[in-house]
């Protein structure tokens, strides 16, 4: 599978992953190599990764963080920065982030800020990280329950996608990552959307190509708008409401915490409904989108009192400007529109629509 050139990095796949990594290390000769893992990838992925890392004179240190979104915090960053300092990391050190989106987001932020920036490489081990989180240079941590409020855009040297790591994932994590793939189809490619929503026609061996296609879509968008001044905002479709829902369910103990993709799936249905009122999406397309998403994602129950809390959290969305909430909406399947303003009553209607499904 051919490698993909991003603006400042390269994405390698499967058989090329370890030869490219070992060649890079030999050529660049980092002073030390640090590998960031979480408690899951330490046990399930690190042994395979280390077995493919050629032994050499370069000292390697493994740093382990707790697993889960609730540990994507500046406190964990402090611990990683301190560990790197104690182990003598300098500006020629290399940080390898081996894990899902939490590890690649946080690890990228750690590397981009340690000594004003050291080189890092992402090795995504979850479907979500392979198709979204690890590509494009967005790094950062959460601020309380508010998603990705602190961070920088800074690409690593490369992304290494070894699909065999997906065998370590529970089904729920595979489903979570699938939401971002569906999003890629909805905002840019109707044929890709159709393929993803008719997977009964495909064999599991097609997963490699589907992941590759998602990375191509995201990379094309990011390359043309690296700092999210325009079209890159389309990647946030489903996220204005989805992130607020994810934060709300994370904040309240009586709510069952949602995985990122589960919240984004809800957000995409809600924002598709809003698209019929604001952006011209047809009712037929809304029906197709809702049915396509609910093939994979279970409905979540909302109470009426939840709506106001979720809408308050939307005020922290990073697309907002001058206190005005900005949505990404769909004009049609495969065509997105940015910077849309939406009246509150239509947002409330969207929740009623979702409840009726």
TrEMBL record:
A Gene Ontology biological process in which this protein takes part is: aromatic amino acid family biosynthetic process
Q: What is its EC number?
A: 4.2.3.4
Gene Ontology CC terms, in alphabetical order: cytoplasm
**Which InterPro entries did the record assign?**
Dehydroquinate_synthase, DHQ_synth_AroB, DHQ_synth_fam, DHQS/DOIS_N, DHQS_C
State the UniProt keywords alphabetically. Answer: Cobalt, Lyase, Metal-binding, NAD, Nucleotide-binding, Zinc
Q: Where is the 3-dehydroquinate synthase N-terminal domain?
A: 63-174
Q: What cofactor is needed?
A: Zn(2+); NAD(+); Co(2+)
Highest taxon of the lineage: Bacteria
Molecular-function annotations in GO: 3-dehydroquinate synthase activity; metal ion binding; nucleotide binding
Taking the record's annotation, the residue ranges forming a coiled coil are none
Q: Where is each 3-dehydroquinate synthase C-terminal domain found?
A: 177-320
Q: What does this protein do?
A: Catalyzes the conversion of 3-deoxy-D-arabino-heptulosonate 7-phosphate (DAHP) to dehydroquinate (DHQ).
Q: State the protein's name.
A: 3-dehydroquinate synthase
């Amino acid at each position: 599978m051919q490698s993909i050139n991003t603006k400042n990095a390269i994405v390698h796949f499967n058989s090329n992953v370890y030869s490219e990594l070992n060649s890079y290390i030999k050529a660049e000769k980092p002073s030390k190599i640090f590998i960031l893992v979480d408690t899951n990838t330490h046990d399930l992925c690190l042994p395979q990764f280390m077995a493919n890392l050629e032994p050499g004179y370069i000292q390697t240190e493994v740093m382990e963080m707790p697993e889960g979104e609730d540990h994507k915090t500046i406190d964990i960053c402090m611990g990683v920065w301190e560990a790197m300092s104690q182990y003598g990391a300098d500006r020629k050190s290399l940080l390898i982030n081996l894990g899902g989106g939490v590890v690649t987001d946080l690890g990228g932020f750690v590397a981009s800020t340690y000594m004003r920036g050291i080189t890092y490489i992402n090795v995504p081990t979850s479907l979500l990280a392979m198709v979204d989180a690890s590509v494009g240079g967005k790094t950062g941590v959460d601020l309380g329950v508010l998603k990705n409020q602190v961070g920088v855009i800074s690409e690593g040297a490369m992304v290494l996608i070894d699909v065999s790591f997906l065998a370590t994932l529970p089904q729920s994590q595979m489903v979570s990552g699938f939401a971002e793939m569906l999003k890629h189809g909805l905002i840019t490619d109707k044929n890709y959307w159709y393929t993803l929503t008719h997977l009964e026609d495909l064999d599991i061996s097609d997963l490699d190509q589907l992941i590759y296609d998602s990375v191509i879509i995201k990379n094309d968008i990011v390359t043309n708008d690296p700092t999210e001044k325009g079209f890159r905002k389309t990647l946030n479709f489903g996220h204005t409401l989805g992130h607020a829902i994810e934060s709300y369910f994370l904040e309240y103990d009586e709510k069952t915490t949602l995985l990122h993709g589960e919240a984004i799936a809800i957000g995409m249905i809600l924002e598709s409904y809003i698209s019929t009122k604001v952006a011209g999406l047809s009712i037929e397309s809304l029906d197709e989108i809702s049915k396509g998403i609910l093939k994979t994602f279970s409905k979540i129950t909302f109470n009426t009192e939840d709506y106001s809390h979720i809408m308050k959290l939307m005020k922290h969305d990073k697309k907002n400007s001058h206190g005005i909430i900005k949505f990404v909406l769909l004009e049609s399947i495969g065509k997105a529109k940015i910077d849309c303003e939406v009246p509150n009553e239509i947002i409330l209607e969207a929740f009623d629509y979702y409840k009726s499904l």
